């Protein structure tokens, strides 16, 4: 007897989702808890798993279709044997959404593809096979000199949501950026001296991010306005420190949040960031892990950026941009020294934070990083 496969129950902040990928075809055997479908929302990609051993008997929502919370997306039948194939037809253009998408992305005309599906319908595999199949007795056409080829693909929901939030931040806040630079030599020497012992003791690699997270947390204690947010006509001062760390993934920029960083050790910060980075790569971050946050750190230096202006992550009022460590000649006590320097950028909402507070906050971070013993001695 067939049972219904439903979309997950979305949080209140997520209105709907889009079927991104069906990992199993109708009639293909599947094991219990095996991922059969990915649903992309504005924030994360959710996985739908098989409730038991068996197979799909019908796909009701195809790739590219919009689904609501707890909506039926497929029919499933428990049991070891494969169920009979039931193809889903689509009235629009006569093709399923996944096939239309494949045809659009490859530029192949539906009339040129030999359909092998039920009733001669075209499948995704037919499109892929047609694209890779060499044409017999056909002379290749030469590309005209100066011809410019374009490829048009739809934005993912996550990319669209990121674009909307970034545009909103630039239009709805009085965003301003202040810059400074930090000598990374003290931290680099400290890290070099203790990284092996740190990893052996805690099982986590000692990177630079833990120093920045702890320095930012201490600076937020001194400048609570930077840890606040604006809600309508109210200012909300947060009595906790939840630091978002921007992570780049194949699906776009995501910002998982480290909770209560004032209570976290350096090892816990490093382990937390490492776990989030792995989840981001695999697309397994949950909505709860990316919800909230009172301040954000983003590191463009991992991609080689020397200087940039980070955009606020609303409703937060501040974001710190880290950059590439670059050796530069610096004047130290009347002498020129080659030092590993990093530019820091603090973007802030001027409606909430005055320039004096913003500069003081950034200088506090600079001092804590250039003299890391201050963090240990609470100075």
Describe this structure in words.
This protein is α+β, with helices and mostly antiparallel strands and 379 residues long. It folds into two domains: 131 residues, Beta Barrel (OB fold (Dihydrolipoamide Acetyltransferase, E2P)), CATH 2.40.50.100; 203 residues, Chloramphenicol acetyltransferase-like domain (Chloramphenicol Acetyltransferase, 2-Layer Sandwich). The chain is built from eight helices and 19 strands. The longest helix has 18 residues. It starts with a strand and ends with a helix. About 3% of the residues have low confidence.
Q: Total number of helical segments?
A: 8
* Number of beta-strand segments: 19
Give the CATH level 1 class of the largest domain: Alpha Beta
Number of domains: 2
The CATH homologous superfamily of the largest domain: Chloramphenicol acetyltransferase-like domain
Q: pLDDT average, as an integer?
A: 83
Structural class: alpha+beta
Give me the CATH architecture of the largest domain, please. 2-Layer Sandwich
CATH topology description of the largest domain: Chloramphenicol Acetyltransferase
Question: Strand fraction band?
Answer: 25-35%
Query: Stretches where pLDDT falls below 50 for ≥5 residues?
Result: 82-94
Rg computed from alpha carbons, rounded to a whole number of angstroms: 26 Å
Globally, the shape reads elongated
Helix content, binned percent: 25-40%
SSE sequence, one letter per element: EEEEEEEEHHHEHHEEEEEEHEEEEHH
Sheet with the most strands?
7 strands, mixed
End-to-end distance: 68 Å
